[in-house]
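Do me a favour: review this protein, sequence plus C-alpha cells, and tell me how the chain folds. Record follows.
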Amino acid sequence: MEFGIIIKNVVIMGVLTGLLFFSQSAYFSQKAQDFGAPVLKKGTGYAGSQYIGKANEWLENNVYDKISALGGEVEGQKAALGDKIVEQKEKVEKASIDGAKKILAEKVLGILGVTPQDLGVSCPAD
C-alpha cells in the first residue's frame, strides 16, 4: 500500500515538473497567448458592466460608510498603542542586552578559568 502511494506521488511530481518545464518553451507560451487573449478581452468586458456598477454602488452606500465611521476610533487609540509598543520594545531590548552581558561575562570568565563565585561579586544582570 505504501509503495503504491510513493509511486503515485512520484508520477504526480514528474507530471508537474514536466508541465513546468514545457510551459517555458516558446511553443507552449504562444499557445497560451492565443488562448489567453480572447479570455482576457471577454473578462475585461465584464468590468464595465452594469452589475459591477451596482455592486460598487451598494458597497459605497452600505459598507464603506460603516468602515469609515470606525476610522476615528482607530486614530484615537493609535497613540496609546504606539506608547505601549515602544515600552514593550524597550523591555525586550533591556532583557536581551542583560542576557547577552551575562553570557559574555560567563564565557570570558570561563576562558580565564575563574568562576563568578571566586570573584565574590554577584552578576548585575541577575
